[in-house]
Design a protein that fits this description.
Layout lengths: L5 H10 L20 H6 L18 H6 L20 H8 L8 E5 L6 E5 L1 H7 L1 H8 L8 E4 L4 H13 L9 H10 L3 H13 L6 H10 L3 H13 L1 H6 L8 H8 L8 H18 L6 H8 L1 H4 L8 H6 L1 H4 L4 H12 L21 E4 L3 E6 L6 E7 L3 E9 L5 E12 L5 E12 L4 E12 L5 E8 L3 E5 L4 E5 L5 E7 L17 E5 L1
Parallel strand pairs: 1-3
Antiparallel strand pairs: 1-2, 4-15, 5-12, 6-11, 6-14, 7-10, 7-15, 8-9, 8-11, 13-14
Helix pairs in contact: 5-6, 7-8, 8-9, 10-11, 14-15
Keywords: Cytoplasm
Subcellular location: Cytoplasm
InterPro entries: BACK, BTB/POZ_dom, PHR, PHR_sf, SKP1/BTB/POZ_sf
Length: 507
């Protein structure tokens, strides 16, 4: 084959004309289909009956083995003959020099790669490529530089445009999503997002949330936030949490639906600030940590902590100044509460459906109070988040009660959640809600004590109590509660009768 460009070769192929009846020793042009000589070398024999000298048709395997080369004497084989569909023919052209009319120089430095392509195929699949090659400002160059695109991601994009095949994995999905968005290939974008959704977990929720916000994928971002809400502790402890950007951190800390104690949020934020100082090449000092946190620091809800949690953590961290520390200690100890400059809105606006475990089928009167807590021991078979108790009120008529709520881890005696609040009753034997400031995480197969110290008139109480209560959830699951007597200083509540008729929770 005479040397020349691929376009010259194509033109010469198109200009070839076969003269009927041609014979003799005249050699066919070198860029025609394989000659008798090549066919015989591949195991074919010419049909010479009746003195005719017909060229045999090579087998498909033989055709596939003859390649187009840029060397003199190379041949363009009849590759089309073995591709029976349009998809097969286009797929064959993927990342192939045959008929290519544009080359992309993708990536930078040692990672750079030259990738051949076909303007027509790209223009059919992408409005961006269509404008690039056919628009008013269309490029005339046969080479296009793409330094901001990863070669592997660009090949995934081309593979999709040529064959509808999706080839993405954990290592390439984000770069492929970026490339699909850059060239407005919505179908591939959707495949990438679906892949991310199916692989979303607590270990990568923060990382994917950052990417979803970067690539403006609100549906994926919402799923990530839902995962973080339901599994806040695990998500904050994941390795990728300290790698998120500040805007993502702010967005999460502003949520009312995080299912974790505020002291643990503070510890996680502290870890993030240390990593951010290192990224900015700043010494890790309390002053620098508060500086890099910016408004995220003000999103920490210190008033939701217990005084013990505050004293052991934030008060000793160096991030708060003396005035802030004094104001917060006053908030924990005096009434009315001073303005401390930090939100005290409970993070208990839970997602999903609120559920209730009711342990008494009947009520009686009357139940008195003398400063001792009513207590009941319980376990559950899966993790839940308790947000409050249902309590009986006065049988004398409408009354307001003051109540101190607690949930205590039985083995360690640690108070997992507490709140002093009030509730009003109307004189009926219904239960009335008394809520915690924030959800209390209850681990499966672990014993806890639900405690309520009421101050007020005598009330109704429950009888014929259930030792085992099964609650149907909205997702088809069931949560099983087991109740037993809580020994110690108890106002008389037991499995059979007493107070705390209901536990209000989310899963």
């Amino acid at each position: 084959m005479a040397s020349g460009s691929k376009n010259d070769i194509v033109n010469r192929l198109l200009n070839v004309r076969l003269d009927e009846g041609a014979g003799g020793d005249e050699l066919p042009p070198q860029n025609m289909l394989p000659s008798n000589q090549h066919a015989r070398q591949l195991g074919h024999v010419a049909d010479e009956d009746n003195g005719q000298n017909n060229e045999p048709i090579p087998s498909s395997s033989a055709i596939e083995n003859l390649q187009l080369t840029n060397n003199t004497g190379g041949r363009l084989h009849n590759w089309q003959a073995t591709k029976t569909t349009v998809k097969e023919r286009l797929s064959f052209l993927f990342n192939n020099e045959i008929l290519s009319d544009v080359h992309f120089i993708v990536g930078k430095d040692a990672n750079q790669q030259v990738i051949p392509a076909h303007k027509f195929v790209l223009s059919v699949g992408s409005a961006v490529f269509d404008a690039m090659f056919n628009g008013v400002l269309a490029t005339k160059s046969e080479e296009v530089e793409l330094p901001d695109v990863e070669p592997a991601a660009f090949l995934h994009l081309l593979k999709f445009l040529y064959s509808d095949e999706v080839r993405i994995g954990p290592e390439s999905v984000m770069t492929t999503l970026y490339t699909a968005k850059k060239y407005a290939v919505a179908a591939l974008e959707e495949h990438c997002v679906d892949f991310l959704k199916s692989n979303l977990g607590t270990d990568n929720a923060f990382l994917l949330l950052t990417q979803a916000r970067l690539f403006d994928e609100p549906q994926l971002a919402a799923l990530c936030l839902e995962m973080i809400d339901k599994n806040t502790a695990d998500a904050l402890n994941a390795e990728g949490f300290t790698d998120i950007d500040q805007d993502t951190l702010n967005a999460v800390l502003e949520r009312d639906t995080l299912r974790i104690r505020e002291a643990k949020i503070f510890s996680a934020v502290l870890r993030w600030s240390e990593a951010e100082c290192i990224r900015r090449q700043l010494p890790v000092t309390p002053g620098h940590q508060r500086m890099v946190l910016g408004r995220a620091f003000n999103a920490i809800r210190f008033p939701l902590m217990s005084v013990e949690e505050f004293a052991m953590g934030p008060a000793q961290s160096g991030l708060l100044d003396d005035r802030e520390i004094v104001q917060l200690f006053l908030y924990f100890t005096v009434n009315p509460k001073p303005n401390v400059g930090f939100l005290d809105t409970p993070r208990c606006c839970m997602t999903g459906k609120e559920l209730t475990a009711n342990r008494f089928p009947q009520t009686e009167s009357r139940w008195g109070y003398s400063g001792t807590s009513d207590r009941i021991r319980f376990t559950v078979d899966q993790r839940i988040f308790v947000v409050g108790f249902g309590l009986y009120g006065s049988y004398f008529g409408p009354t307001e009660y003051e109540v101190h709520l607690q949930i205590i881890h039985l083995a360690t005696k640690k108070v997992c959640g507490s709140n002093t609040t009030t509730f009003c009753c109307d004189g009926s034997d219904d239960t009335f809600r008394a809520m915690f400031k924030e959800p209390v995480e209850i681990l499966p197969n672990t014993s806890y004590i639900a405690s309520a110290k009421l101050k007020g008139t005598d009330s109704y109480y429950g009888t014929k109590g259930l030792r085992r209560v099964m609650v149907d959830c909205n997702n088809g699951e069931k949560v099983v509660f087991q109740f037993s007597y809580a020994a110690g200083n108890n106002n008389g509540t037991s499995v059979e009768d007493g107070q705390i008729p209901a536990i209000i929770f989310y899963i």
